[in-house]
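hiii, so i know i said id send this last week but things got crazy w the move. better late than never?? heres the sequnce for the chain we talked about at the cafe, plus the structure i predicted for it. fair warning i was half asleep when i ran it
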Amino acid sequence: MNFQRNEQGGGSRKRIARDLMLSASVLVAMCGTAHAQDAAATQGAGTAQDAAAPDAPQAEGQEGDIVVTGYRASIEESLSRKREANAFVDVITAEDVGKFPDKNVADSLQRVPGVIIDRDGGEGSRVSIRGLSSDLTLTELNGNFIAGADSDDPSRSFNYLLLPSSLIGSVEVFKSPEARLDEGGVGGIIINHTRKPFDLDPWSGSVSAEGTYSDVTKKVEPNVSGLLSWRNEDKTLGFLVGATYQVRTNRSLSANSDSWHWWTDDKATGPATDVNGKTFANDSAIDYWDSGDGAGQTTQGGTHYSGYWAPQSVSETIMEQKRKRLGIQATMQTRPFDNLEISANYFRFQLNGDYTRSTIKIPEWGFGNFFTDATFDKSGTIMTGATFQVPAEGTGCRVPGNMCTMETPAPQDTYVREKSVSNTYDVRGNWELGHLNVDFVFGKTKATGGPSFQFYAQAKPRNGSVNGNALSTWNFTDQSIAMGFSPNVIQNMLNGVAQIDLGSTGSGFTNSSISQRYAQVDVTRKFDSSFIDSIQVGAKWRDGRVHRETGKFEWYSDAANTLRFQDTPGGALALPEIFYPNSLGNIAGGFQTTAFPAINIQNYIGYLNDTYNGPVRVPEPQNVYNIREKIWAGYAQANFKMDNVRGNIGLRVVNTKQDGTSTDRITYENEYCVNGPGGPFDPNKPVGADGNCTVIPEAQRQVRVFSPNSESKSYTDFLPSFNISWEAMPNLLLRAAASKVIARPGYGDLAGSRGLTFNSDAFVFDRAQFGALPGWFGDGGNFDLKPFNAWQYDVGAEWYFNRGSVLGFTLFRKDVKDFIVPVVIDLPQEVAGQTVTVQQYATQANGTSAVSQGIEVYAQHTLDFGLGAQVNFTYNDTSQADVSLNGTKVGESALVGSAKTQLNASVFYEHGPILLRASYNRRGEVVRGLASGLNIYDDPYDQVDLNAAVDVFRNFQITGSIINLTKSEQRQHLGNDTKDRFVSNVYSGRRAYLGLSYKF
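okay and structure toks below
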């Protein structure tokens, strides 16, 4: 078959790039340590004061001084701030106004030891620290929570796609807490700091313009930003405004296998096993196809298979996201009195998106009538490929009275138009009275997100009993999927051999909002004592609210808007113009296929608009979801300092009260088609002009029940913390820390709402050819989840052997309790007074106790002629722990989000007007949630990025970057015994940037 496939040689390119990066990094590090003793003798302690500030580098130094600017100055400033901190902190500092080291704040954070990021469209989106999920990382803006809302359910995890890097001056990553800092980050706390007018010269700022190009879109798109700051000479009044606007098309190519099951003739005699033939201790959590009763499959040739893992369906997807990103900052700073400073801030981060997703799918529907062949892994327990073929006319199921049709490939296309907006307002002040310092802040952050319009449709290559496709085949190839179809499938669909699957066509949206009002007062009393440096006390109030709305869009065929188009005789009509005339192309990676038929979703929406009344927005006011979270916190912290020892000890006390109302949504699918003469199980259903069965109107065949639930709980946490740093030698710093930390359950679990669907036997009879299965299915929150808490301990050493240079390590351990694991499991639930088994129920469960421990090793050095390197390695070992749901063990899991290894290496050369930088990032296998009793794992991932800049003349610079030079792909698999249970693969492309920037 003629597969469309990705370019070859990616593995060798990645190995070459990786080896070059690591070799150069090691070489620079060796040179640095070789000269460390001499440098220490001539330079002295190499203290933080030696590093030049990036915003104000000295034009001339004293005799023998090395004056640094640009990127080298920024990393030296970051290292200086790390050294001066009492806690375990990593810092990222912008090179200059509007010049953050990477295109995305998350991309810069991934270069910090122990930090892992999730990607969306190739960009960093979510951040995890030291092997814990992104929901356990607290992200703040200038020391306070920043709200973010997406189209899905609300999340505590901040989406860094909203945050423009050009507005950020520095970022602090706290891996050990202090009592003065907000709680909520078991993994760590990330504080993004913006700039203030008093920190900059009057009438200073920057402007930049950049174009970006991606190999998966073949488009050039703009990114512009600017910042202007003014203050008077006395620094009593200042203003700063900044803005950034970006247009970007992200195109992701992905392959997926869904819902792995064990297929066996007899569950008792042929239970599920791993590739080594071992059964599972948590067999009750394994998903058995047809409950393990007669689920083995036989080919048309009579070969019978039983006792193997296989996915319920496989799919390939092209996702195109047209994003417009806007970021605005407005800051006023004033000093009405010498000892009082007040500033007011407004931030708006907005992300508009038009998303089109095209998917082709091969579900399990072909087993039985069309199954002709299969391939398996070397153990014989994992199906790695299957072939489905329509029998010859007059044989098998192609006989009069039982004319079967091939329902695959099933093109599924979705269009979403959405907007996410985050607004933050605050007023903060600082009042100094001798040894007394009072800081205060009050403000509000609110985010809204979700689709203003969403529609999805699915088509089938058949019309009545006529097949448009005679062959469907899939196999796992190179940790991805290759598909093959009849060569004339697209032309047949254009010729009218196609129908819209009305049961898989429609709309559904989720709009959410998150808001938090906050106020805080901190009082610091400084002392002239030789031991107690200062005492800090403070209190903080937070009032958070979460609101969610759901609904759908409908097109109606009558003036009264009562009869949906899906319920009319011609609703399944698939005109040729609603399909693309050719296979979707430019498949630069991710998967292989001989054809990719797709619905032109915009044309189909246009057809519906012209033919029916709509789209009509239909909200679901019965589906109530309103959550409130009130938090009161107080703390006391003592900061101590002697000649060579400093640190802090403190206690934070936090009371959390959560209450609200959510709604169970229960849907009963009673029937679908109008009955035949013999009743609901008569195959002779009335057929409409579109070749589809005559559909019973939704209001008559479906029952929806909304059941509200009101819940509340309150708990108090006592969180001690201790940090100490000892300068054992002039250049050697030893650190230690111990603390208790917590993270609250995700917003989706502050309520126990469920979404459940029951498929009756009559409904399944009508929809079996489209994959309908009998019984209950659904998902839901888990209000009984306990807060994630841990005791954590850190010990480290930092050797500052030269200016801007360090060699260090940190040993860390977290004793974790009640960690949270996503699970998908067949679970008994009480519905309408009866206990039923809900199949493939997706929810969250608490783990018992686990340990996460490891080591971070890092080095940074720059040679005198401008060649430098930053290297760090993290090893993280997490124990397995029992995972329980409703008091029943459902499996074992390591900490979700944990990766055993992570390596970062950056090599740069900066001399005169030229900056060149290459960065390599590799993270090891990452643990995800449970599915069918087994963990899902992200495969190891590595990527190389290149950056360059040339100063054409003073303050005017040309910049260029290549992101994902290695064309790396993200992959997942199920289980830790093999990678052959393929779950997903995503390729988001290689991206290039070219721009101009001017500072004034």
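btw The first strand starts at residue 89 and ends at 93. thought thatd interest u
miss u guys!!
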